[in-house]
Amino acid sequence: MTVRPTLLSAPADMRPACGWGMEQFHHPRPVRFGRAEGSRPTPERRHLMDGLTGRVLEIGAGDGVKLTCYPPGTEEIILVDSDPFLRATAKDVAAGVPIPVRVIDGTTARLPVPDASCDTVVCSLVLCCAPQAQAALAEVRRVLRPGGRLRFYEHQRSCNPAITLAERLITPAWSRMCGGCHPAHDVLAPIRAAGFVMERLDHFSLYLVSHVLGIARSR
Predict the structure, then answer these.
(1) pTM for the full predicted model
(2) Which one, 33, 53, 108, 127, has least CB within 10 Å?
(3) 2-16, 86-100, 107-121: least confident range
(4) What is the pLDDT of residue 216?
(5) CATH of span 3-157+187-218
(6) Is the pLDDT of residue 136 over 90?
(7) What helix, strand, coil percent values describe the chain, rounded to 5?
(8) How far apart are CA 31 and CA 3, in angstroms?
(9) In what side-by-side order are the strands of the sheet with 101-105?
(10) CA of 191: how far to CAs of 104, 132, 214, 217, in Å?
(11) Which residues lie below 8 Å from residue 172, measured CB to CB, with a gap of 6+?
(12) Half-sphere exposure of 182 (CA within 13 A, CB side)
């Protein structure tokens, strides 16, 4: 496991214009930056996707543009979301993606795919919003093949006490605006408690809020 304090965000002058996608509807962060044919995945999305192969399940559709960021080694993408509007929007994007895509109805507590059927599960700004992160991670483990990977990009409580206090103070308002997100939660503890082993872990700050981006292997 590596821990690298790094800022992965794109410079302000390279942030995308409206229309370059979002990680999640409740966290409308871009998944691409640049313009027209020169656009490319943001550093966060690129790190999340780098080296992906096989069948991948991602929780949360955003507006579907994230589908354009998957590398060619991906054999199939299963995109799970409970919102019918976002599923319909994602299906429109999926029609133009060269990788086979299934967009299906589901939640973090009920992933509608068979046991041990996925090589990787991607959670981007999902676990920090899950009402019961432990139950969500149990579902993630269920659908992963033995040795499968969880790739995650999440808020993570700061190790700085002053920043942690600020994160806790903003949580009530933040949670109402951002789909139940709790920036002061420790998402790493439930990932480890669910039986995952950290293989890569980056700590960084985005908009002055602490985050983690990593890969964890299912035992």
Answers:
(1) 0.84
(2) 53
(3) 2-16
(4) 98
(5) 3.40.50.150
(6) yes
(7) 30, 30, 40
(8) 23
(9) 3-5, 196-206, 209-218, 144-155, 118-124, 54-59, 74-81, 101-105
(10) 24, 12, 11, 10
(11) none
(12) 12
